[in-house]
Design a protein that fits this description.
about 0% strand, about 80 residues, mainly alpha
Length: about 80
């Protein structure tokens, strides 16, 4: 099982390395979208969708951190809902 995981991992790493070499910029993910779709409405829409997904992901992390962090304090300190 480990051999398969190592093979898949190295393949993914080589694809990421190829993209980094093929598109050397500091634009991040939007640089790939611009290259794939051009700098138009499609790439702009996907960029906004990407930002929305970042915000949702960050809010899920904050909620999970708050839930686990609340367990560190005594139950008398918890807010009553």
């Amino acid at each position: 099982m480990s051999v398969i995981a190592d093979s898949v991992s190295s393949e993914i790493d080589s694809i990421g390395l190829w993209r980094a070499v093929a598109l050397p910029s500091q634009g991040g993910t939007i640089a790939y979208l611009d290259k794939a779709f051009g700098s138009g409405l499609g790439a702009g829409s996907l960029n906004i969708l990407l930002w929305i997904s970042y915000i949702v992901m960050l809010s899920l992390y904050a909620y999970a951190f708050g839930s686990y962090g609340a367990e560190l304090f005594p139950s008398s300190w918890h807010a009553v809902a």
